[in-house]
Amino acid sequence: MKDDIHRRLQSTVSQLGTREGEQDPSIRQLQLDLWAYRDQQIAANAAVANLEWRLIQFDNHAKGLESELARVRLELSNTKKVLAAKSAEAAEVRLSWTFRIGRAVMVALWPVRFLLRRTGTHHNS
Amino acid sequence: MHHFSLLLPTYNTPVHLLDACIRSVFEQTHAAWQLCIVDDGSTSTETLCYLRGLTNLGDERVVVQFLDENIGISGATNKALELATGKFVVLLDHDDLLEPDALELISGYLTRYGELDFVYSDEYHLYPDGSVHDFVKPDWSPERLRSQMYICHLLVVRTSLAIEVGGMRVGFEGAQDHDFALRISENTTRIGHIPLSLYYWRVNPMSFSNVGETRGRSLEAGRRAVQEHCDRVGINAVVEHGPHPGTYRLKRALTGTPKVSVVIPTRGTGTYVWGKYVSLVEQCVESLLSRTTYRNIEIIVVADTSTPLSTIEFLSSLDAETIRIVYYDRPFNFSDKINLGVVESTGDVVMLLNDDTMVIDEDWCHVMLGLLEHDDIGVVGNLLVFANQRLQHGGHQYVDGNPTHVGFNVDWTDGGAASMYGVEREVSGVTAAAAMLRRSVFDEVGGMSTRFPNNFNDVDFCQKVRQRGYRIVWTPHAKMFHFESVSRNATVTPREMWDLTLTWYREMRNDVYDSPIQPHLLEWVKSGERRKPGIPKLRRFSTSSVITGELHG
Fold first, then answer.
1. CA separation for the pair B229, B240 (Å, rounded)
2. How many domains, chain B?
3. Does B475 touch chain A (CB under 8 A)?
């Protein structure tokens, strides 16, 4: 439809001609309308091509972000695993040290306990 | 994997420079190369000793040939070309350096962009004081190549094509690569540009082509090369030396004398120019009539109905055969006024001209028409200067997607970077303040878009023209004054910016003539990993270590 109008306008302008001295306002206006039509057609096509291009860019960008997100997730998961392992290890270490310190205290206090028993402070007779 | 043959002619090269050059080849990350060295009858024992040492390395990739007599750089390069077995030849000067990933990037580029015949890259200029400057080049720009050897290094050519054109021509020494590039360009359209600096060119004020008599011979050889190129491709022009060293000016002869319709939109503004109050349009028309040597012109003044009566009377009193006044009674729309003026015109060629301009070069019309003789040139723009002689317009460029003028408000008289203000060259667009084009092109793209009443109408127009496959060329040889913004409102409306971005976003993000690095290449070259500009850290080694075969150590 648009192409048909375009062809008809082109044909009319060609027939009327643009010879010097033969122009009248209607021909001028017709020429301006034809240019406006052509300009809009070119602009519309360019805008569509640009939007398509930008869509592809966004798509690529989104794909890049998705893959980056997957990579970060994986890294996070691995980090969590490592942290959990380290935490367990640390807990074990802490437990072990608590036990050792407790035992050392008990051993260190044993003579005191012994003496207290011997002095009979436990026997309130 | 592409196989490259590096052609390296040597002649009494200081060993420390040759050593660095060859080391930069051995350091390539791309392994498929062949180094074809032809010594052009050196008399320096040190150089000869070094080269003989290379032959003792037992590396099959290095081929060294010694000539008994000095036959010049063209002959020596041709001898090296005879030794080449690679699919592509790479020209390398004996004292220059390659980036370590130069060949890898070229190979990747050739793979990505199809089978090209001719590829060039940007380059670093390495000065004797150790400073490094990036020489950013435009994409393929034939008009600029006719005006200066902008391609220089790194230059890669398909071997079969290099042989087909006969290699370098003897007699063009000093400009042999310019002549070679011109002849190559006549035989292929498959030309690519890598917008990354892959080569370090030593700027040596004492080199062969920069000293005394030889410098004059080199420049003359360049002029002859361009002249012969014009003769071969059918450009009817006399080539002269340009305003800056190493630049050339084509004085084109016209095949006809088409009528040029100069369309001047105005509202009769007056202002002070050089301390004197003038009517801009009267000054413009007067300068056109008195300073234009080309005679077949008509002037269409598109005047607002608010134009002062005195201006209308002045214009009406001039030659009625040449000047016509068309009245414009609608709300201001620059594009609409231009369209109306072109509709009223009768010439085959249209010159769009602002009323705040004034002719400087009397042959401006010849110069611009000469460029329009090329069917594939759509629009020609020219050098515009402010009243204080500083540059107003050196073509359009898009910086981060925003249109602006090349070299706005700079001192252009020294030629600027790489003499760009002194040579004819392709640009992404030119201002509608002074632009010449064929009426058929104007018609083909639907004139100027009335969507842009005030700003960017020229940017949009030039993009439409380029989209149809035409080149847009800017010339410094048709100078005019432009007392810009004296006569217009420079405020950009959001609507204009939105319309421009909506339509030409992609094109404005990829200024192939002025953008240092193209976004589509950024992804590919792993820009994050690429080294920043700087002198490559080459391991130095002594001549003896080369001779004893420690080069690979």
1. 13
2. 2
3. no
